Fold this protein.
Amino acid sequence: MKPELSDMLRDAKSDAPSPRYSVDDFVAAGRKQQRKVRTMWVGTGAAAAVLAVAGAVAVPQLLPGGETTTPATQVAAPAAKPSAKPFTYPDGDFTANFAPYRVGDLSVSKAILVTPGYEVASITAPGRGQVFEDENGKQRDVGNQVAALTVFKPGAFDPSVVKKGEKTGDAYFTEGVGGDPKKGKPGNDGTYAWEYADDAWAVIKFHGGEELQAKELAAVAKGLKVGATAPVKIGFKLGYVPDGYELAAAGTTYNEMAIPLEGSSYALLLKGDLPFTGLKDNILDPYVVGDKQLPLLQLQVFPKWYAKYPAKDDKSWCESESLCYIAAPGGDYVLELSGGGMISDDELLKVLDNVTFAAANNQKTWFDATGATK
Amino acid sequence: MSDRDTEFRDFVTAQMDSLRGLAYLTCGDWQAAEDAVMTALAKLYVKWRRIDNHAGYARTAVVRAAIDETRRPWWRRERAQSDAMPDRPLPYDSTGHVDDRLKVRQALQQLPKRLRAVLTLRYLEGLSVRETAETLGCPEGTVKSYTSRGLDALRQILGTEVFITKENRREARAV
């Protein structure tokens, strides 16, 4: 009999274990979520809207009367100075050189993620962002990211897709599209792209729900300048790296469209060559060359309150296949290591058992990412 | 019991198996799959009155949660419940049927999650290219490309031809 894909897929899930959640559990979870939403509507004033983000609940930071807050993790950037140096891409694969700056109510951060092909900064604005609420109802302010600025190394970016946007001056603009939850439709991110040097491109990607216009993004583009040039740093150092894995990305977040949590840092190691040429977008999971995903190790430090799983004393442990953890000394931070199912848990635990932590909340103690992952 | 609760209960009862399977084939882990469904349906409950297409919303939320599951930690409370249940071991099977099932699972595991999600949505859920693109929030061209790459990869990994229905095969040719 011919192997029919639909039959194969149906069969692959046919021995499902008994559900551990009952219909009552789902109703209870929905009611709990509803209560959280109502509580925050009351607490944040009538102008607030509510977003749910994968188990956490997020609200914009609008206070009654239109007052806005500045997140603890977000330091207001200085306004762009005309005397600063025009931007040039730094030498070295894991070197960052953004100068933080502000244009209107948009603040551009220093680099939050660096790869051999590009560096990324977050763009934040007051009154448009999120706070998380943990299981005890405590709200955590993690900043108000509305967009990400990615500056590609010369020759790394293929602009054919962004060039389909509307030409505006020397740039190309594609309007964002907000999602329509009523119809179950997601939105699409908008982009603003320009060539900052010969064959060297920069792209601002913004959430579809943000009504950012080409004019204000042009001002952001104009403000891009060179700041302090330094190797990217992370809050941990590996004492053991499995054979063949090499650093492919490092910074303070894995997701450039989400502002880093305070004290968080991130490193991605890949086994095999990932070409950083001809890119049409930032490289997100999956890291695929041809039809094959490269074996990867993703390491991320984040605060304990953000952790899904409780720490188990000072020992490393795996919660499920290829997803392992260790708590940093003091227990306030957790290091997550994901192996993507392409390396044994024993190897992952060996990596975690040989980690040295810096002080997560003191970046002066952090390690150069390149040296810390060899 | 409110009308919403009644309607929501009916929806969960009718869709649970389908959503669990969709999440499982996307993320490859039953516990993570159930957590993804829980997160998605809790959101759906809150928005129940504001959403017309409940199944579409749930499908989108489940797939996205399943893709993100290993990368986005969440509440400890939920973890405490998920500790209780290990995945069921495969029973011995002299017919080789379980062997085949295991091979297909292992083959799927070798695909990136987004490729798995595309294949599952199109060939298990029977969504069109456009519907799959809307569910995943990506261009239709990406869905076509992932479909082609996913099918080729499955064929290579399994070492055999993989057939799709006539209707879907026509769409696949348009890649």
Summary: The first strand of chain A starts at residue 51 and ends at 53. The longest helix of chain A spans residues 23-44. Chain A has five helices and 26 strands.
